[in-house]
Design brief:
Distance between the termini of chain A: 35 Å
Oligomer: homodimer
CATH class of chain A: Mainly Alpha
Helix content of chain A: 55-70%
Number of helices of chain A: 10
Number of strands of chain A: 0
Radius of gyration of chain A: 18 Å
Number of domains of chain A: 1
Chain lengths: 222, 222
DNA sequence: TTTTTGTTAATAGTAATACTATTGTATATT
DNA sequence: AATATACAATAGTATTACTATTAACAAAAA
């Protein structure tokens, strides 16, 4: 699985200096994921991160121009990672139905395994995407950042899965809305099931959220 | 329509002093909605609000203990308003199918009319709910705040509409997930259609989002 | 009328935050 | 060995969210 790492590529415009190019950079990313997970995005600061990695606040600014772009970098890394798993996991499947089911599973299910060969903990990263991910685009700078390509990976991923939907049912008029509803929905359903369970119908022991979206999409496009 | 206002009740624990009880309180709420809309939640400060309403920053702290609880107040006011419109708009409908359709329309469609009798601009408030609303529960304090009843109005609303679903199809296993998926989904689909349109399939001239969710739900529960 | 009481807002702060300008230091190149 | 470059650390600034204290003012009581 560690070969996948090579294919996770984040656009270089998202950071001032590639964090993979130095030990300090890897520490910033690795510890940053841990800390945002522990204390939440709002409480997390570059100063605290600097203390944890035995470095200085301003050194971090050499890699990322702001706390916000660090989060944008995480989100893009995550979607790039998911995209590779999607391409890899569907290329040997024959029917679009199988490919779509694989995609649903990949995007909706909880990430449970961590590739320990990397300095990035994918389990924690998945939790950040669920709890903090939407803060990346709920900003007044959205149009500027969109133009800079901050959301390119995500848009490409939605397009790929929409293509599976269209391969099954070419006349379905809302493939993008269906898939973005699923991806975003899966995230806050997981969040709700943990913190506001009365907004969900989750039961322990089985992945109700995967079941729900699989069924929802099958019925929508049939 | 202005009689509805009487029925919009926000739990008193959400503010230190009821803003409806004084002119200053009404200014805080009214101008606060305007300013968050213009500059976004992050850039908005109590200091700037104080300047705009000809008052002092600290006077605002007499009404709301923080910027965050002001947003929580707005969200609760909004859901309370929607809940009243739902109860009022469905009580003379006979079938659960009609009631559910009414609920979908009420929750998914854009708010276009402003009740000018009030100091609260519902059109702007709807925009805040769409662009900033999720920031209310994506916080590390979620469990604390949930216990204090910060999300009670929202949970009650989801329950009401889930009951319509169950009246139509008692065996449907995911009514709450279906409705919370719709409500949250409708918000970011509107946001996406404006800022990241390639994630949607919206066309100008017709309300594709209402169509999409109406069809999605009908097919899901049939 | 004077005094007391309670409610309101304004003043003037604090600690912490995001971010930057500048200086120092190690490494590589000539 | 001298110079150039890349890097990180120091030490800041402006702004933020929030608070402790004081002042204004009205109604009620003496």
């Amino acid at each position: 699985m560690e070969n996948l790492k090579i294919n996770v590529v984040v656009d270089s415009s998202l950071c001032l200096k590639n964090p993979e190019s130095s030990e300090l950079g890897k520490k910033i990313v690795g510890k940053g994921i841990e800390m945002i997970n522990e204390m939440g995005y709002e409480s997390f600061t570059f100063k605290k991160l600097g203390e944890q990695i035995g470095s200085n606040e301003s050194s971090i600014y050499r890699y990322f121009e702001s706390k916000h772009t660090l989060l944008v970098y995480f989100v893009n890394w995550y979607w790039s990672w998911i995209e590779y798993k999607l391409v890899f996991g569907t290329m040997n499947l024959n029917t679009p139905e199988e490919k779509l089911n694989k995609a649903i599973q990949l995007l909706v299910e909880d990430v449970k395994e961590d590739n320990s060969f990397s300095y990035i903990n994918e389990v924690l990263l998945n939790k950040i995407i669920i709890s903090e991910g939407s803060k990346v685009y709920y900003t007044k700078e959205i149009d500027n950042e969109n133009q800079k390509g901050y959301y390119a990976t995500y848009k490409r991923l939605v397009q790929r899965i929409s293509d599976f939907v269209l391969a099954i049912q070419p006349s379905y008029p809302y493939p993008h809305m269906l898939i973005s509803t699923m991806i975003e929905g899966a995230h806050y359903q997981r969040y709700f099931s943990k913190h506001l369970p009365s907004l969900t119908d989750t039961e322990s022991g089985e992945d109700t959220i995967v079941k729900f979206y699989t069924e929802l999409i099958q019925r929508a496009i049939k």
